[in-house]
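Teaching note: in complex prediction, the entire set of molecules is handled at once rather than each chain in isolation. The prompt given to students was simply: 'Predict the structure of this complex.' The entities are:
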Amino acid sequence: MSSAPVRVRFAPSPTGYLHVGGARTALFNWLFARRHNGVFILRIEDTDRTRYQEDALEDLMAMLRWLGLDWDEGPDVGGPYGPYFQSQRLHIYQEYAEKLVREGHAYYCYCSPERLEAMREEQRKRGEPPGYDRHCRYLTAKQRAEYEAQGIKPVIRLAVPLEGQTSFTDVIRGTITVDNSSLDDLILLKSDGYPTYHLANVIDDHLMRISHIMRADEWLPSVPKHVLLYQAFGWEPPVFAHLPVILDPSGQGKMSKRRQRVGDKEHYVLVREFKEAGYLPEAMFNFLTLVGWSLDDKTQIMPKEVAIQHFDLDRINKAPAAFSYEKLEWMNGYYIRQLSPDELAERLVPFLAKGLGMSEEEVRRRPETRLLAPLVQERIKVLSEAVEMMDFAFRERLDYPAESLIGEKMSAEASLEALKRARQVVAALEAFDAPAIEAALRPLVEELGVKARQLFGIIRIAITGKPVSPPLFESMAVLGKERCLRRLDEAIERLSRLVGQAG
RNA sequence: GGCGCAUUCGUCUAGCGGCCUAGGACAUCGCCCUCUCAAGGCGAAGAUCGGGGGUUCGAAUCCCCCAUGCGCUACCA
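The expected output is the structure of the full assembly:
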């Protein structure tokens, strides 16, 4: 292993929003850098002009920051090895590619996409493995001049050795050897002057002094080509570590960049979607840490510092891992419960504002936000769930069917009676805190000869409009006596009407 | 088709020759707590370690073959 200082990079292509697979790759690199007091670099591989997406870069950086993955060198922060956009390094790739041609390691290829397509079609028909037939590898100077004269813009291809083997060692996979004869003369420089991934990646990793390459498993098959490139340049390759792919929850294939539909459930795949659904960055961080890596046989919950302290390439798993939304949800709930009530309230603000149609300032100003936060804390798994548990405290009128005011296994009349008694008791209260409210209402259970769940179920509907809510007495205390009385009156009125109709 | 990688409870994993009658977590189920829903506590069930051959006194752990899955096979990354 290299003794050079640790310099790792996350090198996404801005062709879409950051997805969990990319986030995991970034996270592992970040963890490794922090663990070894190394440098974490963000490099943008924007060499595909056809798939470039305008707002992808912004999302990428915003989501990495949201997860707490800060970079030491990169597009916006600069660094000694910039620029960090590959599109701004075109001349570098061109120079190196031409150098390879001069030295006989690469050659110009004038084949048209049509010819290549036809060739592949032929190969398919004959049942041969598809691959470039190296038509241009042996062009004479005269033939080349003719193509040039026709104005054809060539690509540059690597002249892969026809014989022998190429092997490399991946710290996670071990040593892998392939026959050179199975390798294609890959394109290094496209006809538009842009490099392909392979060329740009190898050059930049070398120029930026990258010590370890940690990236997704899908790159493993192209490593031999990269090694050949390093050899052609006379460079020492970095340490390779290919991370297991993340499978979609069905375990049937890798997570695509689009949303997944598994069974009847739709699942998120973009980091942005998780954020908007109310997942905590610290939960995402912890969870992602564990997909493909483990600290030991027991640890699930792990503060960032602990992860940094223990992160190790040795413990990265080989096998692909299915993304478990259930476990993520559980973990998110756990992290929500760890928040201080005030912190939870603050994090809830944007969700409440959006869900209730209020401004964030107003939500923040309303005392209910902070008072209710601890009551929903252990009841939600994602922040967005809090809205429907808390909205009763923000709405003036509750919307619920009068029938729901009828207690479990009770008559409408008995329910109405219960409501009226509750109203009286509440009206007589001086102090209006949860214990006082409970002390006043609880005796009604016996007096009315019902079960606690029956009585409180009725009042719960009256107060919150829902059969499921935060604890009743606490909720009432948050609302305050006046509003509670109004809601009880409203409930009595609705139920009376219902009883009247029936009678 | 070719090349490559992988294969332990439903899922994520621990395991690197004896500590394994395989441990933990999520999910599931049951009980307790209880004003609903949760949270929490306790407990249960769940994997003969993909299959078959070896090696060894002894294998989930080492070797070989097979099967299955996944990835790559673009002027995409």
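Point out the following to students. The two ends of chain A are 87 Å apart (CA to CA). Chain A is about 45% helix and 10% strand.
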